[in-house]
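We close this part of the discussion by returning to an individual protein. Part of our work consisted of pairing the sequence of a single chain with a tokenised description of its backbone. What the numbers capture is local backbone geometry rather than side-chain detail. The amino acid sequence and the backbone structure tokens for this protein are reproduced below.
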Amino acid sequence: MKTPQTTTRFVIFICIVVSLVVGYIILSKTSAITFLEDGAALQQWIQQLGVAGPIVIISLMTIAIIMSPIPSAPIALAAGAAYGHTAGTVYVAIGSELGAIIAFFIARLVGTDILQKWVGDRLTKTMLGSQNTLMGIVFISRLLPFISFDMISYAAGVTPLKFWRFAVATLAGIIPASFLLAHFGSELASGESQRIGITVLLLGGVSLIFLLFNWLSHRRN
């Protein structure tokens, strides 16, 4: 039997989901998502905003994390192109962290109750009960580009992982990825073919290492 508190949390959760879906439909109908996928146009627009540009970058990154279909990579590249790899990394990391935290709490509103009803308290306290293990999983997942950043944030919200551990693991994991994307965007904006080529090779090498790690993990399993 549902308690009034559970019912309230469920209603709030449904309202949030509906709001996200409606927001995404509006963005799709207004071609805003297509615009966000155009890194060059996005960079020019951000640079025209002046001092408001960093706030817009942070806000866009936050929204992109919460609304999974919205691409975050072009925003990160535009941040690096507009502000350089250092400042761009800071803005991208802040936006990503805020988006991850919001997604975490959205899932925690009702997700934990649903998980316990499905699998029982025993599973959530044993298999999902190790704070260090869960923290390590979140951290490693942030380093692997083929694992959905958004889905990990939502999934972590339905586990017993403490918020501060989630926030620390997420921040530690997103800084390297934020730097790579911002640095890549900065190098592309420089227009120097040699620097761009070196950056592309480095990013390709990093991606290859991650893919190889994923393949070896699957082989071991």
Residues 74 and 107 are 26 Å apart (CA to CA). The mean pLDDT is 77. Residues 4-220 form one domain.
